[in-house]
Amino acid sequence: MVDQATVLEQYHRDGYAIFRDVLDAELVAEASDHVEWLQRKHPDVRPEQLGHQYLRDDPFWIRLVSDDRLVDIAELFVGPDIALFASHYISKPPFSGQPVLWHQDAAFWPLEPMEVVTLWLAVDHSTPENGCVRLIPGSHTTPTAATRDAAEVDNVLGAEIAVEVDEARAVDMVLAPGDVEVHHPNIVHGSNANTSAKRRCGLTIRYIPTSTRITGDEQPFPSALWLRGDRGVNTYQPVPDFDAGRHFRYRGAGEGSSRR
């Protein structure tokens, strides 16, 4: 049983928290199979870039991000009225997985106000050897810094924070499949390249209170989904029906809504 007060105290102090064994092994295995299915479907897309443009009409992805165990965690940080803003598989293949350079998520997102929490769901074991997330504790208390283009090395974002980062303070987020790491939109974080023989895959899930407005040009935003409570200020994507001819098959596929 998680001590909510302790978790929230750590989050407010350090900018992150970890929840262990959130999802069952069978669902995590389905998520792993889903990533492999997406890679076969989109062979020209790097596996670090399996974002919402490839997921927006995907019943399994919706089933995953709307799982009550994940949304219950999000509710601790954003309250009872919850929507999905965005989500993205970052799957670093063995030996060639790209790094994510130091950055703050808030620098990239069209949200007003910047009230959002990221849940990073581990699909694989995530370790320093295969390029786990690294965070600078306490850096969430600093303002959002400028970014700059970064093309010297191949990397997931193509950009980095434009201020010096004290990497000696970094903490590795070592996670097992089914664990969840939660972090603040202003925390400085990144990850190294995967030069190991083991894949490192995680799903980022960005939850917002429905009072936060998504201000992107495309409305409804491609990955905006209403999940819980009052619908708030945004418009949302419809939940697609499962189609065996074009969707990933999973437990319960086609049995009512993808949202559980």
TrEMBL record:
Keyword Hydrolase applies: no
Keyword Oxidoreductase (UniProt): yes
Keywords: Dioxygenase, Oxidoreductase
Domain of life: Bacteria
Coiled coil: none
GO molecular function: 2-oxoglutarate-dependent dioxygenase activity; iron ion binding
Pfam families, alphabetized: PhyH (PF05721)
Protein name, as recorded: Phytanoyl-CoA dioxygenase
